[in-house]
Amino acid sequence: MTRYADIPKPIRSGIVLVDPDRGTPQRIIILQFNPDTLERSLSPQSAGDQADSGGGGSGSGDKNEALRLKGPAQETWKFTAEIDATDQFEVAAPDGIHPQLATLEMLVQPTTAKLREAMRLSKKGTIEISPIEMPLTLFTWGSKRVMPVRITELSINESAFDVNLNPIRASLSIGLKVLTVSDLPVGHRGAELYLAHLAQKERLAAAARGGALSALGLNSGDIGLGRV
User: Region (Disordered) spans which residues (predicted)?
Assistant: First the structure.
C-alpha cells in the first residue's frame, strides 16, 4: 500500500515583500502553482561595450577593456503564473480570484495613502516631490534562488468567470529584473541579498565538474601556443 505521507511536499515559489530597514517580511505571496517553465536572460556589462558601440569593427576602443566587466550582469526572468479558483478554494469565494489578482497588481501600484500624500504636498506648492518608494521585493524559487527584484511586466489573461462576473481563472505573465549592487545604494538590504544570491551561484559553479581539453581535441600546448 502506498504511503502518501512519505511523498515529499513540493516547495512553492513566491514573492516576499520586505521592510528594507528592519528586514521583516511585510507580506508573503505564494504562487498557487509553480510555473512549468522559466525564461531567464543574462546580459554581461562589459567595459568595452561603450567603446565598441560606434560600430564598424574598427577596433578603435581600448583593447585593455576587452576582458573587463563594469559590474554584475543584468538578469531578467519571465514566467507564467496560473490562478484557478476551482482548485484553490475549499469554501465559497464571493469575490472569485479578485483578491489574489489585486495582491499581485498592488506590487506595481502605490497605495492610495501615498498618492494622497503626494497630492497634498503638490497642493501645498512643494517644488520637488520624491518618487514613491515601494517595499523591497524578493522572488524565491527554492532556497538556492532568493533575489531582490523589480517587477517589469504584469500581464493578466482572465479566462473564466462566475455568474457575478468575478474572475475565477487567470494566467499572468510576470517579468522580473534582478536588482544588483549597481541598482541599489551601498549598504541597502537588497544589495546584501543580491551578494548572497551571487555567492550561491559561485558555490554551485565550484561544485560543477570541470571538463578535459582532450574532449575538445586539444592539449595544453595548443592553448599555450595560441593555435586555436
Answer: 39-66
3-state DSSP assignment of residue 154: strand
Write the CA distances from 139 to 76, 147, 209, 219, integer angstroms. Answer: 12, 6, 28, 43
Strands ordered across the beta sheet of 39-46: 25-30, 14-18, 136-140, 146-161, 167-178, 69-84, 39-46
How do 146-161 and 39-46 pair as beta strands? unpaired
Question: What is the rounded distance in angstroms from the CA atom of residue 223 to the CA atom of residue 218?
Answer: 8
Sequence spans of domains, the chain: 4-36+78-196
pLDDT in tens, 103-142: 999 999 999 998 898 888 888 877 677 787 788 999 999 9
| pTM, full prediction | 0.82
Angle at CA of residue 201, ends 196 and 203, nearest 5° = 90
* pLDDT (tens digit per residue) in 47-103: 876 555 554 455 555 777 888 889 999 999 999 999 998 765 455 678 999 999 999
